[in-house]
Amino acid sequence: MSLMADPPGADRLSVRVRRNTVGDHDEAQRSGFLDALAAGRLPWEAYADLTAQHWFVYEALESAATTMADDPVVGTFLFPELRRLPSIESDLQFLYGPRWADHLFALHATTVYCTRLRDVAHRAATGFVAHQYTRYIGDLSGGQYLGPAIAQSYGLPGAEGHRFFIFNGVDPMAFKTHYRGLLDTAPWTRAEQDEFIAEVAEAYRLNIGMLAELQTRWGQR
Fold first, then answer.
1. Distances from the Cα of 1 to the Cαs of 4, 85, in angstroms?
2. Quick one: pLDDT band at residue 26, thresholds 50, 70, 90?
3. Does residue 107 contact residue 210 with C-beta atoms inside 8 Å?
4. From the CA atom positions of the chain, what is the Rg in Å?
5. In CA terms, which of 11, 57, 68, 182 is 20 to 30 Å from 42?
């Protein structure tokens, strides 16, 4: 009996990571908390809380980008136009006012997430790129639908309060294609590719945990 051959390109890293983390990705996409925000079923403070948790995550990620900038692999994955921290801080100022930093409080799940991110992203390119991939590619995918839905549900004017979701000068589809090409040409051994894929799955689970705690905190109103 002959075995069916894998389709062309099935061994590419960009294909392998999507295939091996599809369950984690789909679970993150099904977050009841995000659905409730998109539908406007929660108070604006719940959205502000999500934005505050994002501040901790992206501060950890973008600090790692600075630390790892001289790594020859990481360097090819650094794009200044992706940085979210300035946009998050602008959103927090709009939502909370000039003393927005007084409102920052990391949930337990967020602290766990950031601890893991700092540990792996400062040590190896596979760890950094795994968390970068999970965050930014997600922002350029589902985030492009979530942002406008939140803006409409909470009456956010123009770009105010949801700049996090807006990537000026970036074509999401073209960028994601380019990024997957970078993954496919990264000079990693098979073992390093497997480390990357495993960390992407872990990053999804950490994000799911953060969203689950937010859902418990704010409920489904």
1. 10, 55
2. confident
3. yes
4. 18
5. 57
- Angle of the 190-218 helix axis to the 22-29 helix axis, nearest 10: 20
Q: What 3 state SS string does 140-172 have?
A: CCCHHHHHHHHHHHCCCCCCCCCHHHCCCCCCH
Cα–Cα distance for residue pair 93/83, rounded to 1 Å: 17
| pLDDT at site 221 | 47
Q: Which long-range contacts (CB under 8 A, 24 or more apart) does 30-36 make?
A: 31/208, 31/211, 31/212, 31/215, 32/215, 32/220, 33/211, 33/212, 33/214, 33/215, 33/218, 34/146, 34/211, 36/215, 36/218, 36/220, 36/221
Reduced DSSP (H G I as helix, E B as strand, rest coil) percent helix, strand, coil of the chain, to 5: 70, 0, 30
> Can you tell me the distance from the alpha carbon of 88 to that of 53, in angstroms, rounded to the nearest whole number?
10
The residue type at 55: W
Task: Read off the pLDDT of residues 38-82 as tens digits, 9 standing for 90 and up.
Answer: 999 999 999 999 999 999 999 999 999 999 999 999 999 999 999
Asked if residues 57 and 117 have their Cβ atoms less than 8 Å apart, the reply is: yes
At 123-145, the pLDDT tens digits run 999 999 999 999 999 999 999 99
